[in-house]
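Researcher: Quick one. two chains, 620 residues in total.
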Amino acid sequence: MNRIPKGCKNIGAELAEAMERCRASFLSIFASYGYRPFWPSGLQLLETALDKLSPYLKRRIIPLSSPHGEPCCLRTDITLGVVAYCAAHHPPHERPLRISYADRLFRIPSSPNYDIEGYQLGAELIGWEGRGADVEIISLLLEFLEKLGLRGYRLVLGDANVIATALEGVPTPVSEELLSCLQGGNYSTYYATLKKEAIDGDRRKLLQALPNLKGAKNVIDEASVLFGSFEPLASLKSIADSLEELGYGSISFFDLGLVRELGYYSGPVFDVFLEGVGVPIGGGGRYDRLLAQYGVLGQAVGFALNLERLASALSRSDFDAVPKLLLWCGPSSPSDAVALARHLVSLDIGVEMSWHSDASIALDLARQRGLSWWCDASTRIVKSTKDQAALSLDEWLLEVRQ
Amino acid sequence: MMLSIVLPTGRVFDEAVEVLGEIGLPTGKLSHKGRSLVIEDGGWRYFLAKPMDVPLFVHSGIADIGLAGSDVLWETNATLIELADTRRGLCRLVVAGPQAVAPRFMGHESALMWLKVATKYPRIADSHFSSKGVQVEVVHLHGSVELAPRLGLADCILDIVQTGATLEANHLTVLEEVAPVSLRMVASRYGIQRGWSSILPLVEKLLETTKERSPKSE
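Model:
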C-alpha cells in the first residue's frame, strides 16, 4: 500500500468531481458579480501569522522553514492573504474590492478531526462602508447553494454588535468570560457566571434571554423589546428584511447569542449549516480589525465554506445532471473521433473517449464508469449500457436535450 | 420533527434515564431496552453509546442532544453546546497513587517531571500536567487503570473516583484533585438551530429540577 501522511487525503472519483463542480460553480457565480479570483501564497511568514491571526488559529499553525531560511507556516488562513494583497496592490480609490478564492488550508487538527489539510471556498468584499455589502455577499452565497441543488441548508445570523451592546457596563473580565462562554458554546458556565456576578436587573434579564433567542425573524422583535429599542438590531433587521424580500426567508434563521471568533468580527455574522451535519460547514461576517492591522480603513464582509463537506452533501443525482456518454473511437480515425467529441461537448454533453479496438471492452468500460450511454463514433449509433437499446446519435441528442 | 438523544451506557445510564424522566421525556422503553441501541419512544429517538463516544455522536449531527460526563467532554474536545449541568453522575477526576509517591506532589513541581501516569484520559492528563509546566509520560489504558501502579506500569493514575473504594482496594490514595465531574446536557450546533423550540423547554425544566434538588448551592 502507498501510504500518505496521517491527516492528509488524496481525493478522487465522485468526491473530487463534486468538489470541482462546487469550485467551478462558486468562482463562476462570484465572477459574474465582479469578484476577482485570488490565488494565495502557499506559505505565510510566521511573524505575520502570529501577529494577525486569532488566538484560535495561532494554536493551529503548522510552522516550517522556507528553503530561503525564512520562518514560515503552511497557509493557515486565506483572508489574511487577501487583505494583505488588497492593501499592497490597490490604493483606496479602487475600493471596494471584490475577491473570491478556492484553495487549500493547512492546520493542526482540532479534535475529534484528524485532517491537517482542508479546502476552502470564500469571498470577501473589502472597503465598503455603506449599506448593501452584507446582503450582497450573503445573497450570493445563498444563490450558489441554491444552484448546487442542495436541500435542507440553513443560514443562521447573529450580530457581534448586539452582544456588545448587551454587555455595555458589564466589567471587562466578566464580559470577556461571558463572550468566551458563548463562543465556546458553554451555556451552563455562561448562566452560572451571570448568576454569581453583580449585574443590574434589566441587563441581567437581557443577557439571560439573549442566547435563548434563536429561530425565525420574530426573535429580532423579541430582542427589541428587551433592549427597549431597535437600534442595536438595525443591521440584523435590515439583512433579515432583504433576505426575505429576495425569497430566502424560509432558510434564514437568527441566533442572538451567536459569537464567531472573538475580537475579529465587528458586525453581523453568520453560520451555514447543512441538514444533519452537527457543525457549520462555514460562515463569516463583517470585520474591521484585520483591515486596520494592514492600514486599510473601513470594513469588509467575507465568508468561507468547507469545500469537502459541501461536496460530500451533494447526491450522485445532483452532479449527474449533465448527460454523459462513452464514445467508442476504436474503428474511427482519431481526427474524426475527436471532432465528434468536440461537437458533443459543445452541446453540453459529457464525453469520455475509448480507443480500444474491441467494442465489448469499451462497453464494459462504460458500465464500469457508471455511464448510461455508449456511442460508436464510426456509425453514430448510441446504445444504452443497460439494455443495449439502440438509437441514432441525432435521435439520442433530441431525447436528452429536451 | 423528531429529535434524537444519545445516552451513555454503563455507570451513568440509570441516572441519565432519571434525568430524562425528570424533564418530562418518555422513558418507559429505555427501562426495558434489552440489547437495543436505538429506541423510539413518544416522538423521541434515543441512541445508546459508550460514554466516550457520546460527544462524537452529537458533534457529527447524528444526535441533536446528548448526556455526557464533563470528563468525557473535556477529553474529546468536540465542538458542542453545553446546555446545562444535570448535577447527576457526580464524581471527581483525581490523580491517585501509592502513598510512596505522595511526597512528589507536596514539594516543588519539578519533582513531578517524567512521572508515569496511567489513564483513560490522555488528553486531560497531558493538559493537566502541561498547565503546571511539567512533562509526564502518559500511559494510555482502556480500563483497570488502578492496576498500573501496583504492577509497575506507572507511578500514579489519573482517573475518576466516586466513593474511593476502588482506590482503597488497590492501595491508592488521592494525590491531587483535577476537576469535579457531572453529567452534562449537550447539543450540536446544528441541533440547537434546528430544534431550539423543543430543546429550550427541556433545558429550563432541567435547571428547575436541579435547583429543587440542591437548594443549598443556590
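The helical segments of chain B are 13-22, 28-31, 54-59, 70-76, 122-130, 147-150, 165-169, 189-213.
Researcher: Thanks, that's what I needed.
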